[in-house]
């Protein structure tokens, strides 16, 4: 009976202590949140008003641009320290896009790099020797710049040279893996660019073939 009486009385004694504070806490939290949000909005409005009336030598957009350039400068400096090619890329971007006050700190070339610069192109690593002669005559130049026993099929594919969806891989197959040479030579011929720029056909073909020789054979989309 005593236990029963305690159980019956317990909820009535605890309910005023447990329920009421939770309601007050929720109410206070919501009120504080609304007050903080209101004060924050007022502060932001004040900041915007100050920015609009602030008299500065540089515009806000210019200051943002300068900030971006400083960030880019830091990244390029890091890139230039990684490798010789990274150094060259950083130097190009710096000279082309950055102002003098944001110049990249590019390391000075080493003695070994200076000696490499003195080497002729044929001795530079990665540059292949000229494998194609430019002694072709206009009469001996194939219709599309390269020799192929599937010229008619190739001509059909090149009808779409000025359209989206050109089958480059098919052209590569038909031209003996010379899609760049075939497409560029065809475009130059159709638009009379050889005469416009006074380019000899054999020299253009030699250049394009040499360029293709430096492509990676395992990168099919390189062209």
From TrEMBL:
InterPro entries, per the entry: PDE4_UCR, PDEase_catalytic_dom, PDEase_catalytic_dom_sf
Residues spanning the membrane: none
Listed EC numbers: 3.1.4.53
Protein's name in the database: 3',5'-cyclic-AMP phosphodiesterase
Catalytic reactions of this protein: 3',5'-cyclic AMP + H2O = AMP + H(+)
Organism from which the protein derives: Micrurus corallinus (Brazilian coral snake)
Involved pathway(s): Purine metabolism; 3',5'-cyclic AMP degradation; AMP from 3',5'-cyclic AMP: step 1/1
Domain of life: Eukaryota
Key words of the record: cAMP, Hydrolase, Metal-binding
EC main group: hydrolase
GO biological process: cAMP catabolic process; signal transduction
Domain PDEase as annotated: residue spans: 146-223
PROSITE patterns: PDEASE_I_2
Family: Belongs to the cyclic nucleotide phosphodiesterase family. PDE4 subfamily.
One Gene Ontology MF term: metal ion binding
Stored SUPFAM superfamilies: HD-domain/PDEase-like
